[in-house]
Amino acid sequence: MHTPIQAPVNPPHRLLMGPGPINADPRVTRAMSAALVGQYDPWMTETMNETMALYRDVFQTENEWTFLIDGTSRAGIEAALVSLVEPGEKVLVPVFGRFGLLLKEIGERIGADVVTIETEWGQVFTPEQIEQAIVAERPSVLAVVQGDTSTTMNQPLEDLGEICRRHGVLLYTDVTASVAGNELRTDDWGLDAVTAGLQKCLAGPSGSSPITLSDRAVEKIRTRRHVEAGIADGSTAGPGPVIRSNYFDLAQIMDYWGPQRLNHHTEATSMLYGARECARLLTQEGMDRAVARHALHGHAMASGLAALGLELFGDQEHRMNNVVAVLIPEGINGDAVRASILSDYGIEIGTSFGPLHGRVWRIGTMGYNARRDAVMTTLSVMESVLRAAGVSVVAGAGTATALEHYQDAA
Amino acid sequence: MHTPIQAPVNPPHRLLMGPGPINADPRVTRAMSAALVGQYDPWMTETMNETMALYRDVFQTENEWTFLIDGTSRAGIEAALVSLVEPGEKVLVPVFGRFGLLLKEIGERIGADVVTIETEWGQVFTPEQIEQAIVAERPSVLAVVQGDTSTTMNQPLEDLGEICRRHGVLLYTDVTASVAGNELRTDDWGLDAVTAGLQKCLAGPSGSSPITLSDRAVEKIRTRRHVEAGIADGSTAGPGPVIRSNYFDLAQIMDYWGPQRLNHHTEATSMLYGARECARLLTQEGMDRAVARHALHGHAMASGLAALGLELFGDQEHRMNNVVAVLIPEGINGDAVRASILSDYGIEIGTSFGPLHGRVWRIGTMGYNARRDAVMTTLSVMESVLRAAGVSVVAGAGTATALEHYQDAA
User: Fold this and answer.
1) pTM of the model
2) Is B410 part of the contact surface with chain A (CB cutoff 8 Å)?
3) Which residues are modified to N6-(pyridoxal phosphate)lysine (chains A, B) (predicted)?
4) Which of A190, A194, A334, B28 is the most buried (most CB within 10 A)?
5) Are B18 and B350 in contact (CB under 8 A)?
């Protein structure tokens, strides 16, 4: 009924230096083109087990229940919240950017009683502020993002696990923007549920959400276990309320990834291959070295942008290594400059959301693009487009400063 | 902390002749390895628009709202139900296999008042039976699968749209197992919401769920539109109850796919590339020719299996073209035979669920595997393994019968 579209997909060349998604590592997309096998093929279940083991390293955990949710990073968030939080239970969300608001939004939709504390965009919370709110509100779950890309801030988590345990609170965090670019120690920090996505420092495409669950989290979720009628195995249902989603029912998804292999969804095998390769590349590099790489290139980028005369946004002591926001110079149309960078140079940078839309540009150095040539090229182009837009810049200052940073670090 | 896994993924050769997933068309997995671009890159939004147009052809519809849900086929089911059905509204589900039970299960979890009618596995419903139930139950939504792979049955839908309109009922159907292998006419049949998956006759991997919505369905969903706080655009919320999921909120997902391009999830770009290629290949072939291809190879398979002495399961007049179930011969360990087919010949066939587990084998001829060599090889191997298992078979009968079928059809 319509004119058929003749050609296969043929994307233009892009260097994606925004806040994500970024260019996938070619090894990841190559892995995704591998042949499919059946869901219960012994090779497939072994590959699922390998993927679980790899993500234990990524999350720095011994948690048995470390697996993938078949959806984008916000699928992992919703799966964690809808499975962990019973309707009417209280969830405390410290909001320091757009993704804190997203946790609040998802929490409300799944029937939680959500309370928030807020801080200015560009800042993070102290452990004391969060503990005070826990004492005042007595939530069942503390839900907080580690890195909020909307502001580039990285909320310190290392003290929160101990605080949460002392007050009998489960600690959930989303690390989509931060994992592999910044320190994350699930077990050492006492995190009970952690979700991620592939499209930032993991160097893959969006579409799979790794998750890990502590024994405490699993115990709570298991009280809500209800196997669907079509495949009921005769085991008894848990005493807790049925999880209000089938697709995001972590109790059933654990039965699918676990030795029972109870049928649930049909695993998104190509995404699984990609997720496995993301983790394999990182664990071969070593997680600490991957974080150091993001710190090196992220600081080179930030120092270069500052040398071009751009003011860095937010508390730089608590910024993620892998993304920096700069104030758009006065009198400049930020979106027009971004459009020129994209159409004339094939480079993408981002703006932000809400109060920061049109006020900042966000520039990422993530995953496959946490590389010297990507940083240097971007700084060179930023100088060109700023000058063309009428901003006075010191010629060569951005690239020279970044190069110095690399030489000092060598 | 663990031994790193050294090798990239390296799947064994498999010919996937079960009820799905099946081998993806190599053109689809190649398309998925194309480079990523940014979410709001003009090329990306154009590619999303092309994908919408392609799926209008696949679904045989002029529906503007034809797009992808980022998840497996059951993600599409849950998105349709949670967005269409308000908590407490009545949904009628005709159950003729495991996937009818799944619709019931998902409906209950999202707060619907689910009523069912049931028929024996291996049968379908008459339009009169469904209309009687509509008259008796007065549901808001009729939710029915077209093809239920658990039984191989294909529920006729062509009369249901008119019945539903007459009674003021919205008609939702899942066509994951049947689309492109069997006739589907969304507009001509008056279907209001249709969801699918890539892993059967669309010849792709699991992980993306195409969906199409009629104007009636969109109108109802839009009454429940609530834009999330982090990106609120000042538009007013709809009067209907908030959708109990963020990830599956079709009102927000339409705003993301539509000209507003409101940020929601980060599109699973590699899966989008794959989904686009699945639809491109089918629309180039022509949907009617694709259905005829599945009929040709599916009938060759079924007639060959019957010639081997296997009894076909269920109402053959209402079987899907692309999958057939056969009763496992008396005295045979069906799972041991399946294991031998897999390990000795690299071919996968399936068993089924619930009352049919261990009673039938299911053999598919779907998508990329709806091919003469796949059918002939499978029949040859079935003869070998049946004989080895002690079943008396007429030598050469399966392959000879299939070949005759091909010659008659030529």
Assistant:
1) 0.97
2) no
3) 200
4) A194
5) yes
